[in-house]
TrEMBL record:
Organism: Myceligenerans indicum
Residues with 4-aspartylphosphate modification: 54
Protein name, as recorded: Response regulator transcription factor
HTH luxR-type domain residues: 148-213
Keyword Magnesium: no
UniProt entry keywords in alphabetical sequence: DNA-binding, Phosphoprotein, Transcription, Transcription regulation
One Pfam family it belongs to: Response_reg
InterPro entries: CheY-like_superfamily, NreC/VraR/RcsB-like_REC, Sig_transdc_resp-reg_C-effctor, Sig_transdc_resp-reg_receiver, Tscrpt_reg_LuxR_C, WalR-like
Upper taxonomic lineage: Bacteria, Bacillati, Actinomycetota, Actinomycetes, Micrococcales
Amino acid sequence: MIRVVLVDDQPLLRSGFRALLEIEADIEVVGEAGDGNGGIELVRRLRPDVALVDIRMPGTDGIAATRRIAADPDLSGVHVVILTNYGFDEYVFDALRAGAAGFLVKDIEPEDLLHAVRVAARGDALLAPAITRRLIDRYVAQPPPRDLSGPLRLLTNREREVVVLVAQGLSNDQVAERLVISPTTAKTHVNRAMMKLRARDRAQLVIAAYESGLTAPRRS
């Protein structure tokens, strides 16, 4: 059972999301909060698999809430998905850096919401390849690179290849096909790279790849 917490200051939106999610046999909404502080306390108490968090709320916003959740080692199994009214909200980049696994637009289709929750719960890629590339192209133009030279040296050549492909938006199956290895082996390489680069999830691995200079955004 996938356990979900909803954090949004709009009761109507929370009710709508709850109704959509709880129709599914494998998803349970275990709690709701109307602000960031309440959401953080709820997540700490309930330890959900997925927290859907509004990016803009009075007081503690979604970015601050995400940062505090991501910084808590006891909450490493919680995948934060940011909710936004806009497809490319300027604050989405800050949310990804803070530790969010990805983001969803609030007017998302019901089937896409359900798919996103299941994908986030697995810790797999939440952003579609095209969206990943557009996000990263805009994201990396802003912050200075982090010094990840130490952790990068821990990566094997194969793990470096895998990280570059993940940063291009490829799924594990696509990585496996490109490198002529099994999907299980590709997933193992991804997981090991995440551990060595201290990435909470796949989205953080993509960011680390660009911030470290391991790969660079494509320019049209």
